[in-house]
Design a protein that fits this description.
One of its GO terms (cellular component) is mitochondrion. The protein is 86% helix and 0% strand. The chain is built from three helices and no strands. The relative contact order is 0.04.
Length: 136
Amino acid sequence: MMYLCSSISELFLSINETAARLRLAATEKAEAEKILQIKRAEGDAESKYLAGLGIARQRQAIVDGLRDSVLAFSENVPGTSAKDVMDMVLVTQYFDTKKEIGASSKSSSVFIHHGPGAVRDIAAQIRDGQLQASLV
């Protein structure tokens, strides 16, 4: 009988130790998952930050290129103003955009008025939007 009680005590002790180890393992697993989630969020934030830097640099390069183009065109073609050159650039970009949309097999159909008056209106809308944005 004494041997049986001793075995039962050892069995309960073993069960309690196993339960304690399982609780500790669950706590450590939850902590590891928390760390992984934090690291994923930090990585996502860093990725978005770097993407923002890339976009900012791209826009700066576009602005620099436009400025150089406007200056070069104005110098080489007497009587043209920066506005004339920008209007021409906007029209060129408009047609480049239409070409890209048409060239992509995965794009939806986009119908845009493309007569001279419509292009002038689009350019005016872009300029008006830029003026309004600069006032804010």
